[in-house]
Amino acid sequence: xxxxxxxxxxxxxxxxxxxxxxxxxxxxxxxxxxxxxxxxxxxxxxxxxxxxxxxxxxxxxxxxxxxxxxxxxxxxxxxxxxxxxxxxxxxxxxxxxxxxxxxxxxxxxxxxxxxxxxxxxxxxxxxxxxxxxxxxxxxxxxxxxxxxxxxxxxxxxxxxxxxxxxxxxxxxxxxxxxxxxxxxxxxxxxxxxxxxxxxxxxxxxxxxxxxxxxxxxxxxxxxxxxxxxxxxxxxxxxxxxxxxxxxxxxxxxxxxxxxxxxxxxxxxxxxxxxxxxxxxxxxxxxxxxxxxxxxxxxxxxxxxxxxxxxxxxxxxxxxxxxxxxxxxxxxxxxxx
Length: 336
Known about the structure:
Elements: H1 2-15, H2 19-37, E1 42-51, E2 54-64, E3 76-89, E4 94-111, H3 131-134, E5 138-150, E6 155-169, E7 174-188, E8 194-204, E9 208-218, E10 221-230, E11 236-246, H4 247-254, E12 261-273, E13 284-298, E14 303-316, E15 319-329, E16 332-335
Parallel strand pairs: 4-5
Antiparallel strand pairs: 1-2, 2-3, 3-4, 5-6, 6-7, 7-8, 8-9, 9-10, 10-11, 11-12, 12-13, 13-14, 14-15, 15-16
């Protein structure tokens, strides 16, 4: 048996010296990636390496063009893409993707005023491949950049230093990992850009997506959420959230001098259940409380302080209810 293993190993190593084997491994990698994305890749150069029965392909200057007439600049450029393949059986040609490493991807998404985009249509052969069927054991993305320009909605966004990592467990068929970026900027119409960062941890199965922790930070403001989505076709969502909103920053972003200055905190829960017979706004339910220690109100008509603000709120079937309202204004106190 040991002799057969040695002979097989020598034979595999020898294959690496043949261009036909390089092209064969490249076809495997591209086939798997095409099954996952439905999009063909253009590659400047590649190399093939072998570790045991695990060949890997390093691809350089990978490009996906945008849909006509927006081929330039490309939709996606990747400086380096590594795809590792674990061969299960040479005889039956069984393999799976062991590693996918993406270095410095740059994504540019454009939406024209008429609503057309540069997103190429995905191919549909009638047999879709699930990401869970691919079972990619490890995925890592580093130094990513995303640029989004929506001329129809006057919305621009760019995200820098994107990082993504994920691992796969074959038993429960579950992916788990994290996603983050820094110095993200979102600009809507003529408003000041919102500079923010994001950190998130997740788990996902063929039936459920769980956001273990998601935090968006912008200056002194912070929004944290955790929740679960069941049934991707008819989604049901339950979540809890906490928000600390710096109203002074919001005042600058919206360029609205009538907004108060201070920190407002919200905490509560949210639920959503898809119902084709109801508009989305009537399918959302919110419940929570809002508090603020001090709010400064400075307008041409009002110049005062509001202390100890607190209230309960609920949204059901598109209706907002507010109760248990309390606040101190100019030394007095009012309750509703």
